[in-house]
Design a protein that fits this description.
The protein is an all-alpha fold and 87 residues long. 60% of the residues lie in helices and 0% in strands.
Amino acid sequence: MGLPINLLPLIMGVTMLWQARLTPPSPGWIRCRPKSWRYMPLMFMAFLYNFSAGLTLYWTVQNLLTIAQTKLTGTSPSPQPHLKFRY
């Protein structure tokens, strides 16, 4: 007895959207990005909804690890060297 809906593709879509929001764009990337890339998470959810959970699980874990890496490297303050200048 299971759930009537497949939750893993839905979680994957949410993590894809979250990752896309967190990833900083490179210079010039916004202008040349096709508008269809905005709908990629929805397309992947539709494609992987009836597939086995292996690929969806792999993609979800990879998204979560990328989100964690972005959070750790993007929000931590860079260490400032304590240099004393003597003239």
